[in-house]
Amino acid sequence: MDFLQPWHIVVLAIVAFLLFGAKRLPELGKGLGEGLKGFREGIRGINDPPPPAPNTQQQQNTASTPPSSTPAEQNKA
What we know:
Blueprint: H1 6-47, H2 56-64, H3 71-76
């Protein structure tokens, strides 16, 4: 026994059209679609590990500066 048959969908569509009218149905559909999209993205964000933080600025700074001498090495010179 099927839960949702094609004529059920037709009846639901007619009832929705009568309740909300032709103007509001596209708005409701758009809002529902955006909500589902956000929900899916949120679920993916929970399951996926966070991407590694970009460390390019720190790597560039350490690569461009020569190693400095310690105060003990400066006193010996």
